[in-house]
Structures are given as structure tokens and as C-alpha cells.
Amino acid sequence: MTAIDQRHDIQRPGSLAETAQLLRESTGTVLIRGGGTKLDWAGRVSDPDITLDTTGLAGVLTHNPGDMTASVLAGTTLAALQDHLADSGQWLALDPPSAGSGATLGGLLATGDSGPSRLRCGGLRDLVIGVTLILADGTVARSGGHVIKNVAGYDLGKLVYGSLGSLAMVAEVVVRLHPRPAASLTAAATADAKQATAAALALTASPLEPDAVEWVSGGPGEPGRLLVRFDGTQGSVEAAAVRSAALLADLGIDASPVEDAASEWQGHAAAVRGADDQTIIGVAGLPSGLAVLAERTFDSARRAGLEAHIVSSAALGIHTVALRGDSAAAHAQVLSALREHAATHQTNVLLRQRSAEVDALVEPLGPAPSTVALLRRIKAQFDPDGRWAPGRFAPWY
């Protein structure tokens, strides 16, 4: 049993039973930490009494290759799970930019993080078919199971998806798997935001079914780079690449296969993660809104004297904005402009990374959504004493 010692605020239980007992026998606020890759997302958690390290809850509990399911403890890293599944020619169809940085399954579910493959396979919320949660009072709650068509009980996995550790601790997940692709082909093209938007809409409206459509902005006044990926058999991806090149050519976009696709996608992931000296902002909206968002972002950054870059899952409307520059006030100015844009363009803005100087000038969450009353009721039901992640969603609740 892990000792419960309030003098040392980091606790690393080794089982679900230990975790539940720790929560039953302790008091005070709790920060859940897995790989620690997204602790800055939204509001900063203020002085938790306990930091609950989930990395002691690691390992693949079951893997049924025939049913293409696996149950995994939440502290298991995504990289470790993928390595385990590779021998069976399977994978969890999830490729977030934090995959190589120690991101855990529980953390990925709690943050709602995903990657380019979300276009074809969905996010983790779509891949989880069962979940075990531990509530703040030590109660263990389960929903779903090991069968893909299991419809018993409430879907607690979707409830905690994106909750950032504010409702419960994810202890175990059951996921559905996909065959590991035999081949993959990535094509790239020079494209500005308007062209990328047109390409994304055309590709997703076609029967080609790309596995990823991403856009990375260029430097000031320069077009960006469009990436289109197809996974499958060697024959299918080559045929899809030819057909997609013809479709893009009709839009005035010249696409060709990338020789070193692995390096291309590693660079893409690094751009989404951002550097330590950047403010990173997540923006989610309609796929058709990329061009307008890019124009607003670059114009606001130019007026503020900042360098701005955008990485966009163009076909999904999920974007990452990275800002670089010395003035904290300038960063706050651009964030404010993006929030004003969000209020009139059906988008959501999430502050992911910023300096302490920027933190002092901005609200981490911005205006409360129209659903805030419902969010508060859910929080009160699952965490009536407010133990989990104090400040994460302040001032909403």
C-alpha cells in the first residue's frame, strides 16, 4: 500500500484498490498527473494538496486480437501500448503529437487530445468502449465492457473526455483496435489557407477517404504546406494518391508523394506541440473556417509584432496557433482577438501553453459557454467537494 503522507504531496499508487483507498482516507484537493504532457492546458491547478501520479497504474490487462479489443490501465503510455499491439499487426488508431513524449491513455482521454488519424478513425472518445473511473471519495464506477456493441449503462468515457481531470480519475480503458496499415503514402503540396480549405472539403466529399488532411502555415507572406495521407495496402494507397493528385490539380494544387514521410510527420507533430518560448492556443470550429481564422490570426499577430504559425487538421476544423515574441501584452492581445473571432464564428478557443507573464494578463478560459450551468451541475454531482483539479476551469466552476 502506498503511504498516505500529506507532508509529501506526490502519491503514486500501484493498483486501483490503493488509489481508491488513498482517496477515501485523504482530504484536500487533487491534481491527476499521467505523463505530464498537458498540465498547462486551460487554467493552472492551484496548489493541490495531493498530486496523484497514475504512472504506477500501467500495463495491458487483456488483448483479444480476434475481437480487436484491449483493456489497458490508464497510466500506460500510448507508445507502450502500440509496441505491445504491433506483434499482432494491430494498433490503437490514435496519433497525437504527444505520443512520443510519454502521454498516457488516461491523460489522452481526459484531455481529448488526438492527431491526424482522427479524420478517418475518430478520436479516443470514439475508440473507447469501456472505462473504469475512480471518484473523489474513492468510489469505483464502470461503464461499457469488452464488446464493441455493448450498450449497457451510461457512457462515462464520453463524459470525462476533455474534462481535464476535473470530474474523476480514469483508471482503466477498454479500446477497440484497427489493423496496422500495410502501407502508407503521404503527398504534399504548396497551398495557402484558402487552397487548403478547398482541398480539405473536396477530398472529404470525394470517395477517396483520406486518413489525414493537414495544413502547416508558412512564414510571413508565404503559402503553407498541405499534407494528405492514405493508409492501406500498397496498391490502394498508390491508386488513391493518383486520384487525389488529379482532384487537387483541378483546384490548382500540385501534389506529389513525400519521400521521407516519417520525418515530415515528426516535424508536423513538433509544430503542434510547440516550443517552450511560444504561446500555444487550440482553436476548434467548422472546416470551412480555416481561411478566415488564418487571416484574423496573422493580421492580429502582425499588428502586435508577433510571429504566428498555424497547424490545422483542415478537414476537421481543429487548429493549433503558435505565437512567438517578447511582449506578454502582445500575446494577450492576439488571444483576445481570437476569442472575439470565436464569439462570431462558431469556434472554441483553449489556451494550452503560455508564460507566467502572459498568465498574469489573461483569463485562461475566456467567456463561459451557454452550457456552463449544465457543466456546474455535472461537476457538483461527480465532485461535490471540489477536490479534483482546483482552478482548471476557473472561473466557470
Automatic annotation (TrEMBL):
Keywords associated with the record: FAD, Flavoprotein
Protein name, as recorded: FAD-binding protein
PANTHER family in the record: D-LACTATE DEHYDROGENASE, GLYCOLATE OXIDASE SUBUNIT GLCE
Organism classification: Bacteria, Bacillati, Actinomycetota, Actinomycetes, Mycobacteriales
Species annotation: Mycolicibacterium hodleri
InterPro entries: FAD-bd_PCMH, FAD-bd_PCMH-like_sf, FAD-bd_PCMH_sub2, FAD-linked_Oxase-like_C, Oxid_FAD_bind_N
Domain FAD-binding PCMH-type: 3-180
GO molecular function: catalytic activity; FAD binding
A Pfam cross-reference name: FAD_binding_4
Keyword Hydrolase: no
SUPFAM superfamilies xref list: FAD-binding/transporter-associated domain-like, FAD-linked oxidases, C-terminal domain
PROSITE patterns, sorted: FAD_PCMH (PS51387)
